[in-house]
Structure formats: structure tokens, C-alpha cells
Amino acid sequence: MKILHISGAKGWGGNEQQMIYLFPELQNIGVENIVFGVKNSILQKHCSNMNIKFYEARGNKLNTFKNYIYLNSLLRQVKPDVIHLHTSDSLTVFAISDFLFYLKTKTIFSKKGMGTSSSFLSNLKYNFKGLSSIICVSNSVKRDLGKILNEKTKSKTVIVHDCVSLEILNLKPVLNLREKYKIDAGFKVVGNIANHSNAKDLPTFINVVDEVVHKLNRKDIKFIQIGEFTKNTPELLQQVKDKGLEGAIIFTDKIEQASSLVPQLDAFLMTSQREGGPTSVLEAMLLGTPVVSTQVGVVPDVIQDGKNGFIAPVKDFKQLANKLLTLLDDENLKSQFVSKSKAIIENEFTAENIAKQTKEEYLRVMKL
Fold first, then answer.
1. What is the residue range of the signal peptide feature (predicted)?
2. Residues 361 and 342 in one domain
3. Are 335 and 238 in the same domain?
4. Are 131 and 108 in contact (CB under 8 A)?
5. 183-219: per-residue pLDDT in tens?
6. Together in a domain, 202 and 89
7. Percent of all residues in the chain with a pLDDT value above 70, rounded to a whole number
8. Pick from 24, 26, 63, 19: which is nearest to 43 by CA?
């Protein structure tokens, strides 16, 4: 079986991490992976390291007229059994190319998350009749996407969750957080891994810290936020200063292999307002760090509130703060969350398991 994966990603995020997690496992079960993507992207670098054939887009972005033509010729050359689209712009390129050239190849689109709004053109694109299947990464994505799909397209949606690779259990920490940031042994360490995008809602993360430190009077906790700085960062730093939290929150910027640091955390706190996954929560669960999170993305699919983690509504910083302290102050509860969460990931969400589900969807689509 030969799959042509298409991605317009230049940087690195959850979508690209999932591809890299799945490729080796798909290969182990007889799936040949080929990638059509942007030249000099991080994805291309990883594909090169994994000896995966990578076809470079014409120009420095995917969505151009040259690439509509190139995709048509590439399909004749590669002859894939299925096209797997991983980004919004890859769906645009496919839809226009299919309209122009009638591509005929069965095609799957992976939908990882939903924005706050959807334009007329994106609604049209998601309902494109040339799609054979839409893989939704969580029940929440399937539900939200279903609001803009017609009935025929809605029937094409299936759920295949994000995954984690067991290889992360073998990662050696790239640094010692307590040593680098001079955190005394008497402090608990709560962490978060998220780039500084609007979807990650880091102002709520800051509000949780403010509630913990100033309202609940807990001075024995350090909060570490790991993630790539963006145009939002100056405003976040100003909020920290305005609330007098400079000694409580540490923003590290991007750290390579940040997941290797998760076992050093006493708790993982995620405050996102929109998510498909995120992979970081699944990784924390596998690595033995208990999770407190907003109710987004895959979280309700993997965490039962109070059973193997804590969940709170989006932006509810007071509930997040109180649940976080409940967790940190109860070692028995922490152990319960860790053991139950790790079992869930190992039994259902490993790359090996999700690769098998993905291949089953490829086979199903090929028979349509």
C-alpha cells in the first residue's frame, strides 16, 4: 500500500509530530509513506532523517497554481493508493487540482482542530465532494466540524485519535529544570508545553497562577511554561508583570525535545481554549505526570474528571486552580491518576495502535 501524504506546514506543531510518530509504525505494517510538502520545512528534515521520500512543492508555499499542475503530474508518477491531506492548504490544493484535472485517487483529510469561526470558502472546501473520508482527531472535533458539514459529508467523518510513541519513554532530559531555574527542593513544579498562540490561551494560565499565588496564598509552587515565543509573548510578559508574578512564572521559549522534561513536573497544566489533541497531554499521561486541563480536544476522550485527571471548563481559572491544589496536596490521588492514565495511553493511544486504525481507514477508503 502506497500513501501520498500532503502537508503545507513550514514550522513544527502537533500535526507534524503525529506524522512522524505514525510513519515508522505504518511502515511496519506494510504502508509505504511518501510526502509532498514545502521545501526546507522542518517536516522535510525529519523525513530525510527517516529516509522517507519527500517531493518539494514548487515555490516556497503549497497553495500556488504551479502546485495544482505539479500535483497532477506527481500522482501519475507516484501512483498512490490513497492521498492523505494533513493541513488546510493541502485540502485547498487538492480540491482545485481535482476540479481542474479530475485526479480520481481516493483522498482522506485529517482535521485536527476547529477555529473560532469558519468562512464560506472553508465551509465549501470541507464539504468538497472529492473527499472520500475526513478523519477527526477527537469527538469534539467531529462534533464541531459537523456543524458546518452537509449530511453527505458528515457521513464521511470518522474518529482516529492522536497518538504517542513509546520511544519518548527512553528520552533523556535535555536539562534539569530545578538546576537551570534555581528552584528549591521545597517547591512543587507545575508545567505547560504550548507555543504562544491564541488557541493555547496562556492568559488563562497566568490567571491560574494569580489565583494560586495571590488568592489561595500558595507560595510553594513554581510554574514553568515551555513554548515558542510569538507576537503574543510581550503581552503575556506584561500580564505577568502587572499581576506581580515574575517570581512565580518562568517562560522558557522553545526547548527542543521538551517532552523529555515532563517527568520533572509535579503536574501538567493545560489551559487551551481550542485543541485537536493536544499531543502534550497524551505524552504527560504516558510519562507519569498527572494532568489538569480545560475540556478541549481529545481531553474528554482520555480523562474522566476526578478518576484519572482533572478537567475544568475553558477559561475557568478558579476551578483549574482549586483542582490543581487538590492534586498537588494529595499524593495518593496523584498516584491514582498516574497509574490509570498511563494504562489508558498504553492500551489505546500508542502509535502502534493508531497506525493500525489509520491503515484500516486507508483500506476501507480504497474499497469505496
1. none
2. no
3. yes
4. yes
5. 999 999 999 999 999 999 999 999 999 999 999 999 9
6. no
7. 98
8. 19
What's the domain count of the chain? Answer: 2
The Cα 90–Cα 36 span in angstroms is 9
Same domain (yes/no): 72, 39: yes
Beta-strand ranges (E) seen in the chain are 2-6, 32-37, 54-56, 82-85, 106-111, 133-136, 157-159, 188-193, 221-226, 249-251, 267-270, 291-294, 310-312
> In whole angstroms, what is the distance from residue 46 CA to residue 117 CA?
32
Residues 6+ apart with CB under 8 A from 124: none
The four Cα atoms 306, 310, 314, 318 give a dihedral, to 10 degrees, of 90
Q: What was the pLDDT predicted at 115?
A: 59
| pLDDT of res. 124 | 85
The type of residue at 312 is: A
Instruction: Tell whether 135 and 279 lie within a shared domain.
Output: no
Whole-number Å distance between alpha carbons of 325 and 70: 55
- pTM assigned to the model: 0.87
Q: Both 6 and 154 in a single domain?
A: yes
DSSP 272: -
Q: Are residues 16 and 141 in the same domain?
A: yes
How many angstroms separate the CA atoms of 119 and 287, rounded? 39
Whole-angstrom distance, CA of residue 173 vs CA of residue 259? 8
**Domain holding 59: CATH number?**
3.40.50.2000
493508531: which residue's cell? 354
Report which of 38, 47, 28 is spatially closest to residue 6, judged by C-alpha positions.
38
What tens digit of pLDDT does each residue of 143-196 get? 989 899 999 999 999 999 999 999 899 999 999 999 999 999 999 999 999 999
> What pLDDT is stored for residue 112 in this prediction?
82
In whole angstroms, give the CA distance from residue 51 to residue 46.
9
DSSP state of 57: P
Residues 6+ apart with CB under 8 A from 12: 42, 43
Q: b/e for 42-67, b at 16 or more Cβ within 10 A?
A: bbbebbeeeebebbebeeeebbeeeb
Same domain, 159 and 213: no
Domain that holds residue 33: 2-163+350-366
Q: Round the average pLDDT of the chain to a whole number and report it.
A: 94
